[in-house]
Write the structure tokens for this entry.
Amino acid sequence: GRPVSTEAPVVTAGTAAAATGGGLVADAAYVQARLDKPAATIVDARDPRFYNGDGGGQPRPGHIPGAVNVPFSSLLEGTKIKDEPVLRALFSAAGVSPGAEVVAYCNIGQQASLVWRAARMRGHEARLYDGSFEDWSGREELPVVNPAAAKKRP
């Protein structure tokens, strides 16, 4: 029911340039520098069982110290992201302060992209930890909190 055309569109050459110093992606050093910093909140987008150290297939199960858990699936209503008031409540319940920088991670970075998007929608400065927990847990020098292991101790 819409107009169509068989005419080829006129295309003109454009220009594009990559920008350096991207402020969208974080690495392990960036995350480590924000541990225990109140101005930043590290958000784990994985299912709570992985956050709590129950499986996940990572070198060391658990989560990054100080991280809060906002499962990516909790941000969806069917295939759409939930409305801003619901996002605000979810972030607040997890301990994400208004105005705090958000650094989102998951297993490899895919699920965290939805948390990153929700944080940006809420007005947070946000970064995505590329490599996420697979990268972090594979680095023996970096700390991991594993609540499941703590429960198993006598």
